């Protein structure tokens, strides 16, 4: 489960420690992302900043090293995809929809490339597209 996983020596203890630490780290990152999302009232100013959007797109495509925000976005994408944001708050759903709609409308090629990276088998794309187009 983690990259630091587990030598044969003290295997059971190492697994418990590694899994717990990894889970705690991921949860901590996701909670920070969720808390940051709750502070955002409108994504439009961010989406109008082409340089910022391009930097995050390049990060997600693996073309450049991601900053902390980029890493949080990656983790959030992985959390949101499998259940089409079912665990998201209403505010988070609004933000995810707004970003997806912007990318789909204005940067379709990047939208498709990002989907292929995070959902290579396209298991979640139809459900996410339905989510994106849903009016709530």
TrEMBL record:
It comes from the Eukaryota. Keywords: Signal. Residues 1-21 form the signal peptide. This is Chemosensory protein. The keyword Signal applies. The keyword Hydrolase does not apply. Pfam families: OS-D (PF03392). InterPro entries: A10/PebIII, OS_D_A10/PebIII_sf.
């Amino acid at each position: 489960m983690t990259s630091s996983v587990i030598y044969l020596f003290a295997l059971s203890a190492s697994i418990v420690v590694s899994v717990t630490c990894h889970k705690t780290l991921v949860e901590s990152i996701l909670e920070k992302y969720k808390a940051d999302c709750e502070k955002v009232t409108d994504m439009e100013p961010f989406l109008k900043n082409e340089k910022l959007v391009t930097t995050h797109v390049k990060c997600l495509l693996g073309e450049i090293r991601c900053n902390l925000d980029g890493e949080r976005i990656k983790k959030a994408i992985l959390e949101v995809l499998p259940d089409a944001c079912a665990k998201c708050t209403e505010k988070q759903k609004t933000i995810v929809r707004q970003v997806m709609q912007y990318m789909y409308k204005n940067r379709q090629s990047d939208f498709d490339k990002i989907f292929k990276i995070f959902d290579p088998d396209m298991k979640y794309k139809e459900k996410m597209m339905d989510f994106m187009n849903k009016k709530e």
